[in-house]
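Methods, example record. To illustrate the input and output format used throughout this study, we show the complete record for Phosphoribosylglycinamide formyltransferase. The sequence lines were provided to the predictor; the line carrying structure tokens was produced by it.
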Amino acid sequence: MKNIAVLASGRGTNLQAIIENIENGTLKANLACVISDNKDAKALERARQHNIEAVYIDPGPKKTWLIPEVEQKYVQALKDRNVDLVCLAGFMRIIKTPLLEAFKGRILNIHPALLPSFPGLDVQRKALEYGVKFSGCTVHFVTADVDAGPIVTQAAVRVLDDDTPEILAERILKEEWRIYTEAINIVLSGKYRIEGRRVIRT
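The corresponding predicted structure is encoded as:
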């Protein structure tokens, strides 16, 4: 069984879904560790509650990314645990060269919008202000461009007239829990190919 690692900065709700889906057999993987840039992240607490190694790595100077020296520590931690696939789940750092090169084609991210619409942060507010009738979530491969890698899977969620950003986010989150496991299973199975920007099941 292949090893995955989750990188998370906050609550760890997607992490919780991954843990539960491994435990119930829906997700065919071993969660080798959870790594965070936030020593107080609830994600680390969730990992410990399930006897999963929880690792805090100091992110260093306050930036939106990790400086190369620090990012190399993340790379080494992942390699030391023989990680096959890295899963970002609310990891609030932009991945740069060291990790991208060490795990090329082996990093996934979940984004709470239907990419390429609304990349970045505060996406539910942007969706409501734009007036879209559907929003949703996307699992994609991580590349040097933020929220721009090839898309593995998506789920659409209807936007209701009385939605607030918070209400819409909670409804989308339930779909995130479902499709992240689906995407991880696809990638770990190796039964796909990438043609241009398209991820094609084989």
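Annotations derived from this record:
The mean pLDDT is 97.
The longest helix spans residues 165-189.
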